[in-house]
């Protein structure tokens, strides 16, 4: 075991929140790295784990968005070295499987088994009272130290702020890519984002960056709507889609929006069906948000005549159809050049002991994204 004072936010039982406790951390094995965590994003997906929306094995250390410094590497490690500042992505990309070789690193075969929380060799690196503990998506960033595979590490420039960089692990490329890649937004398009939290706000910003003519944000939170308008380029913001229908009809000559993204925290069938009604012929509706029970079938209640005759497209989104090795550094470079707003995504930072308060703020609509920070 490593001789480190490791504190981690662990979910021992669904519905009981995150408990900051001391844990033990094993040495990095082959192709693994030890990361001193500087910042960790509070993503809704981690909350799904502790509420029981996801049926992941417990206990697990939460967190799959991280930025930190590589402090030790295991045998055979080649992608990163000691001293590198890295973003720890939430899925490993091998670089040579069928999917990676086609530029689809987000569905690399190595993603299989990530939910179990053990590393690629199927064994744990975290222990509490002698018992193994999983790490959310093989990351476990609600901790001041973590061990993960080098395939989940992407180097970024040393001078970039860790709070902002941690969001590149998941929320930023997922939302940005959902609009610009999955939903195929183009300059001059009319775009709509349903749900403008830590992921959806990047869909809004994606439409802005791509040059949308009309960029509509839908969210019940007045704070989220205001932020979308004032900081992320939305041209209009509404609490519901029904409130936006007259504008959509006016701006599209009754045809419907070109690109829609559903990023509601707990997505229900009616959200998807409602979003599908807003898109034009051959329009794309991309769905990010997961339902309360994501592995069970749902009835979408979609008008099949409308769906088929108008050739509408419904697409699922994982990591914004992005590739870790390209899109994380690209977004970091856009931020450094002042072309992408990460600063206003970080609404508030918290110490590990306040992780549950961070999620309370998220549910209350007071956060775009909360971030844990660690002193070393």
Described by the principal axes of the CA atoms, the overall outline is globular
Residues in β-strands, percent: 25-35%
Give me the oligomer status: single chain
Order of helices and strands: EEEHEEEEEEEHHEHEHEHEHEHEHEHE
Average the pLDDT over all residues and give the rounded result.
94
Helix content: 10-25%
Largest sheet: 7 strands, mixed
Query: Helix segment count?
Result: 10
The number of E-state strands comes to 18
Classify the secondary structure makeup into a structural class. alpha/beta
Catalogue the unreliable spans: none
Distance between the termini: 19 Å
Radius of gyration: 20 Å
How does the SSE layout of this entry go?
Blueprint: E1 6-11, E2 19-25, E3 32-41, H1 44-51, E4 60-61, E5 66-73, E6 85-88, E7 126-128, E8 131-135, E9 145-149, E10 153-155, H2 162-166, H3 171-182, E11 190-194, H4 200-210, E12 214-218, H5 222-231, E13 236-238, H6 241-251, E14 257-262, H7 269-276, E15 279-287, H8 304-309, E16 313-316, H9 324-336, E17 346-350, H10 355-363, E18 369-373
Parallel strand pairs: 4-8, 11-12, 11-14, 12-13, 14-15, 15-16, 17-18
Antiparallel strand pairs: 1-2, 1-4, 2-7, 3-5, 3-9, 3-18, 5-6, 6-10, 7-8
């Amino acid at each position: 075991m490593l001789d480190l004072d490791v504190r981690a936010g662990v979910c021992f039982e669904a519905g009981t929140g995150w408990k900051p406790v001391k844990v033990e951390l094993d040495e990095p094995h082959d192709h693994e790295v030890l990361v001193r965590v500087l910042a960790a994003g509070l993503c809704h997906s981690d909350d799904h784990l502790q509420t029981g929306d996801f049926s992941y094995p417990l206990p697990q250390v939460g967190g799959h968005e991280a930025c930190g410094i590589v402090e030790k590497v295991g045998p055979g490690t080649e992608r990163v070295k000691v001293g590198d500042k890295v973003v720890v992505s939430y899925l490993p990309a091998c670089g040579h499987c069928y999917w990676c070789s086609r530029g689809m690193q987000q569905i690399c075969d190595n993603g299989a088994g990530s939910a179990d929380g053990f590393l690629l060799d199927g064994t744990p690196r975290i222990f509490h009272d002698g018992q193994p503990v999983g790490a959310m998506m093989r990351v476990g960033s609600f901790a001041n130290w973590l061990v993960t595979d080098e395939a989940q590490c992407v180097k970024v420039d040393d001078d970039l702020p860790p709070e902002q960089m941690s969001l590149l692990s998941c929320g930023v490329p997922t939302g940005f890519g959902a609009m610009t890649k999955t939903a195929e937004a183009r300059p001059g398009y009319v775009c709509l984002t349903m749900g403008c939290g830590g992921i959806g706000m990047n869909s809004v910003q994606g439409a802005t960056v791509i040059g949308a003519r009309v960029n509509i944000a839908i969210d019940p939170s007045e704070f989220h709507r205001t932020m979308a308008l004032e900081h992320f380029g939305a041209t209009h913001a509404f609490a519901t889609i029904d409130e936006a229908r007259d504008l959509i009809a006016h701006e599209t000559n009754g045809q419907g929006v070109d690109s829609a993204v559903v990023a509601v925290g707990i997505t229900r069938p009616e959200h998807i069906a409602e979003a599908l009604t807003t898109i034009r012929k051959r329009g794309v509706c991309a769905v990010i948000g997961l339902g309360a029970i994501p592995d069970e079938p749902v009835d979408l209640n979609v008008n099949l005549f409308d769906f088929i005759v108008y050739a509408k497209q419904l697409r699922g989104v994982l990591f914004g159809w992005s590739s870790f090795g390209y899109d994380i550094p690209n977004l970091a470079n856009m931020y450094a050049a002042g072309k992408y707003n990460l600063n206003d995504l970080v609404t508030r930072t918290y110490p590990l002991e306040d992780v549950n308060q961070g999620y309370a703020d998220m549910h209350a609509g007071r956060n775009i994204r909360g971030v844990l920070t660690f002193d070393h």
